[in-house]
Specification:
89% of the residues lie in helices and 0% in strands. It folds into two domains: 2-150, no CATH class; 157-300, Tetratricopeptide repeat domain (Serine Threonine Protein Phosphatase 5, Tetratricopeptide repeat, Alpha Horseshoe), CATH 1.25.40. By secondary structure, it is mainly alpha-helical.
């Protein structure tokens, strides 16, 4: 009797657990949904254990009834020898067993009904889980599509801005072009053409005969994009600016960098030519100074 009551008390707790799991799965993440499925599997296992316990209880009661039937002749003989009190006692025990079996049958029926309800709710929850997983996959696909569209739009906008700025440069509208290129660099600093934009901004300063401003942007390009494929050109441009400002030593150092770092480039060929010109010019200046000193010494004699 007590074992049957223990089983009956466990059922409402299982129902409560199933209900809470069903209510909380509404807006779960994929991890929570997977965990919910695992909980369902564990719950099914518990239901199986409960069914087995009920079947074992029924078998034990049937065994008791069978054993009573088997000893019934001996009991009748004992009753004849001992008198009516034993008969009355045995009747009470038989009544108690019948009552116990009736209670157990009632509990088993209720338990089977609750198990069927729980199984139905578990099946419905499984359907909800599958639906949530499907919705989550659909959402992920939609999010990926939106991100892809956003990146595609960004690529189109960046390309449009670069082309417009370059067109302005070709038309001689250098200030407008430079503003566009600088906006491009700030808006799309990781874009593969950001170094090109900064390069053409520097070129726009050269076109307006502002070499110092151009040199500042060339240096900025070298600092921000050291792996740029325009580095050889940038170093060459910086060297030419220094040479034009008669900083021949600074120009020579930059020409040497071009030759050392990019020996097979077209810029290296130009750097060698210009470096030779600087060395030739220095030699001529040294020769002129020597001649002047010789003339000065001859005059003193």
């Amino acid at each position: 009797m007590s074992e049957a009551h223990v089983v009956s008390r466990r059922v409402p707790h299982l129902l409560l657990v199933a209900f809470l799991l069903t209510m909380t799965v509404g807006c779960a993440s994929r991890t929570e949904i997977v965990q919910f499925q695992a909980d369902h599997n564990e719950f099914r296992a518990r239901l199986d254990v409960l069914n087995n316990e009920t079947a074992d209880l029924n078998k034990r009661l049937d065994d008791i009834e069978l054993q009573l039937g088997e000893i019934s002749p001996q009991v009748d003989t004992l009753i004849g020898l001992l008198g009516g009190n034993v008969r009355e006692y045995m009747r009470e025990q038989e009544g108690l067993i019948r009552s116990l079996k009736a209670d157990q049958a009632s509990v088993s029926g209720e338990l089977e009904r609750l198990i069927m309800q729980l199984s139905s709710r578990v099946a419905e929850s499984d359907d909800q889980v599958q639906s949530l997983l499907l919705q989550l996959d659909t959402f992920n696909q939609l999010a990926a599509s939106l991100v892809g569209d956003s990146l595609a739009n960004e690529a189109m906008e960046s390309q449009r801005l670069f082309q417009q700025s370059y067109s302005d440069y070709l038309r001689g509208e250098f200030e407008v072009a430079r503003m566009g290129f600088e906006v491009y660099v700030e808006a799309y600093p990781t874009n593969s053409m950001a170094d090109d934009a900064l390069y053409w901004a520097a070129e726009s300063w050269l076109s307006e005969e502002e070499p110092d401003s151009a040199r500042a942007l060339f240096i900025q390009l070298e600092d921000r994009f050291p792996e740029s494929n325009r580095m050889a050109t940038v170093l060459l441009k910086r060297a030419i600016i220094r040479a034009e400002q008669e900083d021949y030593e600074g120009a020579a150092r930059l020409y040497e960098r071009v030759i050392a770092d990019y020996p097979k480039s077209d810029e290296a060929v130009q750097a060698r030519i210009r470096l030779d010109e600087i060395e030739q010019m220095k030699a001529e200046m040294d020769g002129a100074m020597d001649e002047g000193e010789m003339e000065l010494d001859g005059g003193n004699e």
